[in-house]
Amino acid sequence: MPLTNTTAVVPSRAEKPRPRIPLILLTTGALSLAAAPGVWSQELEATTGGNGFYSFSDEVPEVLTTTRLRQPKVRVPGTTTVIEGDLIRDLGITSLVEIFRLVPGMVVAEVGSGTPVTTYHGTVHYEQRRMQVLVDGRTAHRTTLSDMDWQTMPVPLELIERIEVARGPNAAAYGINAFLGTINIITRDPADTAGVETRVVGGSRQYLRTFAAVGAADDDLDWRLDYEKRRSDGFDYQMDHGEKVPFHDGHDINVFNYDSRLKVSPGFDTEFRAGVTDGLNEEDVRRNGDMGLGDHPDIDVRDYYLHTRFNFRTDEHHFFHVQAAYQNFNRRQSWSIFVPEPALSCLRDGLYVFDPANRDTCFPTDADGNLILGTPLTARVDADAEDSRLEFELQDTRLFSDDLKLVSGVGYRKDTYRSATYFNGRGSNYQSRMFGNLEYTPIPWLTLNGGGNWESTTTTNENYFSPRVAANFTLNSNHALRLVYSRAVRTPDGFEQNPDYGFTLHGVQPSVYSEFEGFRIASVNIWEHPDLVTLGQDLEEERIISREISYFGQFPMNEGIFLLEVRGFKDTLRDMISGVIQFDDWTIDNNVAIDQQGFEIEASLEYPDTRFRVTYAYLDQNTWYTGDPNVSEEDKKYNEDLLERLSVRHSGSVAIIRELPMGLLASGAMYWADEFRKSEFQRVDLRLAKRLYHPGFTAELALTMQHYVDEEPDLSSQNNIEHQNQFFLEAGVRF
Amino acid sequence: MVYVAGSGNAALDQHVRQLLQDSLGPGTSLVPLPSNRAALVGDAPVVALGPTAFSNLRQFNRRASVLAMFVERSFIQAYTERHPGQVSAVYYDVPLLRQALIGKAILPQATRISLLATQESIGLYDTLITQLPAYGLEARVFVVETEQQLIPTLARALSYGDFLLAAPDDAIYNPRTIKHILLTAYRRNKIVIGPSQAYVKAGSLASGYSSFPTLIHGVAHYLDTYFKTGAFPAPDYPEAYGVEINRQVARSLNIPVPDRDRIVTEVDEALALRQRALP
């Protein structure tokens, strides 16, 4: 008999059975009386509110993200991919961002010094900021640049309960930034992680991930304390003038989290979370560090967050929560710079240092083509930045009946950014919003959803309303055909709209240049393409209108179940912001329009001991320039291309997980992204795990191999690995 | 004449007496039996409604012929084994194999079942674990050593099984623990089957149950045998069961659940098929 945590012999039946609470009750009504337990039945009803826990609580799964209502898939107004934590772990996924390869239409890549980026339906590769990302309902993207730093996210893989990705504009629920979609990362409830869990994963390219969590759950308080270290050396090498040189693009990040739920009364509980992220994110001098001398401009990461939520339940049909979150992103980055003497003269004379027209003056060369340095200036500069976000939210849910549900709320957010480099000081943006969604099922085969978000932001000093309406035609609770219309906006972030970009010189050497100590070299002093500079122009919001027709179906079979979800879409994106954000170039403007259409498939087949999952996405994107007609055709094309860098025509994944005898679990996955700029990405992952169920603990040992099918790197020619096969070993134990 | 030792719930007692009377016919008189008169029953059989009624009766009269109703097998088994023919029962609980097959009918891809038990209640699952392989299923018992270990053990159990099968084990499943157990299971997208109808109302996905008419039919048959032979047949489960389903849970978990009759039919067929295959 397979027992897990006992070695005791099964006790013989006691001579005198222990008394049992009588399980008898007369349920009045028709004569077909159900024999329900008596005392306990009454107590259960008192405890659960009569209709069970499930009828009323947002502590349990379903699709939460799309409208903020708990909805089964047949009633959700839009296609939503749900990735369960167990799937992530069973496939041996090694980092948070890699998970999104499982989502149809999402692309994952690395830019700069191995900085991971991901998005749905492409657009730009750097500063990807067109998806709303939430962790347990808390906005996760950075304030200054509004992009995501996936390497430092305070989310250990072991603690992911599930990730919901609402594919398509979702500003109706989450406002600005939920432009192309919404990612909601839901971590495991502290009540579910009571006990102790540890895991160590190590492998190729000095990959190391260690995780430990301890917690407890009782009637009053559930809590968990966890720690994760993530370390990797990144890519093996980059190319410099045709030669392989080491790539300084690793990271060493430590994350600490505390998560708790205090149950004050049956109708009131509070959640409290706090976390600290500390570590080093390596940046290669060849990829980053303007005017760099030679030392790598590594980023020192020191982030923290505080998040609390008060959950109130007034009765079975009404609950609301108030939440507040404060997050601070603190990045310290400094490096040495080197300025040739002629360039300093240009700065003194007010010439644009990097303007090709001034090249011979500012960067003269001798007859052999060598730069004439004169007496160069050396100094240290930094790109320190500290952002903080304070947000409040009140959300109210009313369940008038099974067929009529309303969620509504208000929110307020203050984004503060402080950086001498990016803003020459500090600034703030303020957002206020109201949102709501009504779900109405007038007849059993039709569910209607109508929702919207009204928002006011000081970034553009304008108000926006983002609506969504949808009709779900359902059959047997197993099939739904959805028609969805939605609109959304993305407003420019603080840096796009109000930059003051410049580096202040410190530690200037030699002393002959002491006049430059504390001097601020600003973008406006050094433009490379002064005729293209758009700095000072007010940017408008980006707009998207999306039309979706989708189908969700469940097909029970004799020994399993087949699930299919197909999404067809046709989107129009206007006033898209394209161009370059660099120290010596600033050309961003609302100057590109996109029409895109395509379809996506997500299917899974489950049968005894086996799960098979397939995704495929096809994206047909048509991009054209709508900005200043006087710019060259080359520049127009360049701006169009920038918004297609992460747009992939074909992408998908195949995964299979199979239980084998002797506690073995085998899994395999293939991910691909085709016509990815001019390259493609293909990788096959294989994992074999052995699970051990012992008295008092469960352990797992696993070996994962990642095989990169293509020798050529994707997206950037700098992202190279020496060996196409990468190996990872892991060991975990749970008490 | 048949005495009826009541449960203490007057409405229930009255209703059961009425159903029994209808089943036995006017030739048999049913007499309510207060516990303080238990010693006076003589050779007449007593139908005890529930474990409290049974225990009270045994306290005052150990010689009475008692047929227990609304009692679980685990409660009455020791008595019936020591006093065959004199003490018998029509079990109230649902055989665990039947509960497991209900889970299989709902999740046909399931092959592994998680079971939670205490050191004292491991024995509840002995028979089940030996029966399951014949139906393409296997189960593992995860033993909860202390109250504080309930959730950690549950978390480990859920990582093993396709669903959690709950037996009538009040040390594990009770009003204080059930919310935790259900929420933890559903957050992991694992369903819970059993242990009874009341738990289905609380959020368990499904459970088998024995209906009143079936129980009454069984009791009438046992009394008829007693009148003819002077002894009760061996205790047994009723012949038929219904299935209670929490459709809201199923919808929320995106689990397409067949209708109740189909589940009952599938379970009956699986049991019958196995029965026919036995030598």
TrEMBL record, chain A:
Keyword Membrane set for record: yes
UniProt xrefs under PROSITE patterns: TONB_DEPENDENT_REC_3
Membrane topology: Multi-pass membrane protein
Pfam family, one: TonB_dep_Rec_b-barrel
Superkingdom assignment: Bacteria
Domain TonB-dependent receptor plug: from-to ranges: 73-181
Family statement: Belongs to the TonB-dependent receptor family.
Protein name, UniProt field: TonB-dependent receptor
Source organism (scientific name): Marinobacter lutaoensis
